[in-house]
Structure formats: C-alpha cells, structure tokens
Design a protein that fits this description.
It is a single chain. This protein is mainly β. It contains one helix and 18 strands. Strands 1, 2, 6, 7, 10 and 11 form a six-stranded mixed sheet that branches. Strands 3-4-5-12-8-9 form a six-stranded antiparallel sheet, with no helix packed on it. A four-stranded antiparallel sheet has the order 13-16-18-17, with no helix packed on it. A hairpin with a 2-residue loop joins β14 and β15. The radius of gyration is 19 Å and the shape is elongated. It starts with a helix and ends with a strand. The mean pLDDT is about 90.
C-alpha cells in the first residue's frame, strides 16, 4: 500500500528478527498524531497487532501476537527533545529503562518479553517537538515547502537549520508546554495550549 514502508520503518520503527524471535519497536510518532495502529502484520507464522496512543506526558503501546510463544521486544520510542523520562511500565509494573539522548529527540529504551500480549507505558515530562506546515503541491508544480535540514536541542535552546524560497514566510508549530521566546528570523504568531505557531522568514 502507498506509504506503508514509511509507516513501518519511519513512524513505527519496526525491525523484525523472526529466527531470533525478537522485535524492535522504535517509533517516531508525528507530534500531531494522537494514535496509530498496525493490524495483522506478518511475524513469521504469527501475526502482530500494534497500537500506539499518546496523551500529554504518556505514550502507550499495546503489543499482541497471535500465538503465545515468548517474543523479545526492544521498545525505544522517540519522545520530544528535552523530555524527562519518569518511568516505563509493562502491564502496570515498573521496568528498567535507559535514556538515550539525541539532538532531535529522546528515547526511553527497555527490553521485555511478551507472551501473546502486553501493554507498555512511558511516562514523561514533555519537551519540544516540531512540525512544519505543509503547502499542497499541485501536479507539475515546484515545492514551496520549507525543508528542515537539522534540529538540535541543548539546555533549553532549540536550533533549526532550514531551507526555503527567498522572500517567503513559513509557519512552524512547536508542541511544548514551555514558554517560547523566538530569536532571530522567527516570530510568534499564535499559541493554543501546548501548540505554539511561529513564522520563519527566509
């Protein structure tokens, strides 16, 4: 189906090792997606169901295999840059986890055994996630959309390297509970709850 590889590899971050009965789930849910689900996905002789749900400060993954054979699952979701991981739970019980900090996000990594089905929860204090407003592209038209080449978060400062057409203004949404103080080349134009909209001049 169109877009399926991007969903599997990018959004859900699935990596299957059927001979070793292991599965990696390293999702990067777009900041404005409250949920995503994958049903009846082949895993050897079994089928995998996966549902991710997000609300402020909580990411939940429901993992279910059609059989009852134990599967080793590495769960390492990408969370907004600057987030503080509070706990990771499997079926309501706290489990060990490692924090992996990257320039553009934070991962809470844990390895668990799933027999048939399990629910994993990551509780965290949110940082900041970025979404660029896209303009629809007409057939044969040249894209006028802003390209985000690089984002980096360090100690309360978010840096973005972007590429756009000269003389245009682009809108970027920041999903964060924090107060936003735009610097050179950006100005705040709207704030609705935890969604702050900035205008970037190219």
């Amino acid at each position: 189906r169109p877009g399926m590889p991007g969903l599997i590899n990018g959004v859900l971050g699935l990596n299957l090792d059927v001979p070793k009965q292991s599965l990696k789930i390293e999702p990067h849910l777009p900041p404005d997606w409250p949920s995503v689900a994958l049903n009846q996905f082949p895993f050897g002789q079994e089928k995998l169901n996966l549902e991710l749900r997000r609300q402020p400060g909580l990411l939940t993954a429901a993992v279910e295999f059609s059989g009852s054979q134990p599967i080793t699952v590495r769960f390492a979701p990408g969370l907004p840059a600057g987030s503080t991981i509070l706990s990771v739970l499997q079926d309501g019980k706290p489990i060990p986890f490692q924090v992996e900090n990257f320039e553009s996000d934070v991962h809470a990594a844990s390895t668990v055994t799933v027999s048939h089905k399990s629910t994993l929860e990551v509780r965290y204090s949110p940082g900041v996630a970025v979404k660029v407003e896209r303009q629809p592209l007409l057939e044969g038209d040249t894209s006028h959309n802003l390209r985000v080449l690089h984002t980096a978060y360090h100690a309360g400062h978010l840096q973005m390297t972007v590429e756009g057409l000269p003389g245009r203004e682009y809108r970027v949404q920041l999903f964060t509970p924090w107060k936003v103080n735009p610097l050179q080349g950006a100005r705040a134009i709207e704030a609705t709850g935890d969604v702050k909209t900035l205008a970037l001049a190219s």
